[in-house]
Amino acid sequence: MKKLLSILAATGIVATTGITVISCGTSEEKTIINNIDDITLKVEESKTIEVTVINPIDDASISVISSDTTIVTGKSSLEKDTKKEGKFNVIVTALKEGTAKLTVKYGDAAKDFTVKVTSNGETPQKEDLNNVIKVKDLGVYEGVGDLPTIDEVLKQVNTKNSDLNLSSDDVEFDGNPTASQAKLKAKTTSTNYTGNATLTQTYSKTKATTIGAVGDKEIQMGEKIDPISVTVANSKS
């Protein structure tokens, strides 16, 4: 009996060992992008970062995504890893002060790092409002109030000057606007603009659309009646 148990025990050990070997043989190697250190750049500065990948794959697509492209952009030296090398460069370019995150993607793998952009020590050159607003006749438009608001005026300014994107963060009224004129001036806190500009316009308050009264009428079942005329005042096209 002892001899039989010894044989069975030995057989069990061999079987267990065989199962363990098979299990290890089916594991898959995961593709991982090595850590990328956070960096600090000055405005208009660029830096090239070398990126390496563990367990690279054939023809892996490579891309770089910025959380704020107004602050920093990133571009890969390769669009695909056609040689399965797992090595490429990312060119980082700082555009303005702030902090943004860059995400490097290699196939299904991704790695984030942070880019902080600081001032390059140069004072940005402010533009004169009177020069940047080339079209100063805002034309005919309507608004909700008796006089236009700053946002309504700026919407017309940006429409007439398609290369502009003025906002109330940079400009304000210089005095009170009228239906025919609006004066703008740069805010003292604006880092982009200086000076003032006088604009002409034909502004009016939007008239409410109303439907005229329709009289009651009694009809009999199956009776045909003439069309009823309905009058609409200030209809919108």
Commentary on this structure:
Strands 2-9-8-4-6 form a five-stranded mixed sheet, with no helix packed on it. It is built from three helices and 17 strands. Strand 8 (98-106) and strand 9 (109-118) form a beta hairpin. Helices cover 16% and strands 38% of the residues. It has helices at 2-25, 129-132, 150-160; strands at residues 32-33, 39-42, 46-54, 60-66, 72-76, 80-81, 87-94, 98-106, 109-118, 127-128, 137-143, 171-173, 181-186, 193-194, 196-205, 210-211, 232-233. It starts with a helix and ends with a strand. It folds into two domains: 32-118, Immunoglobulin-like; 127-205, no CATH class. Mean pLDDT is 86; it is low at 13-27. It has 237 residues and is α+β, with helices and mostly antiparallel strands.
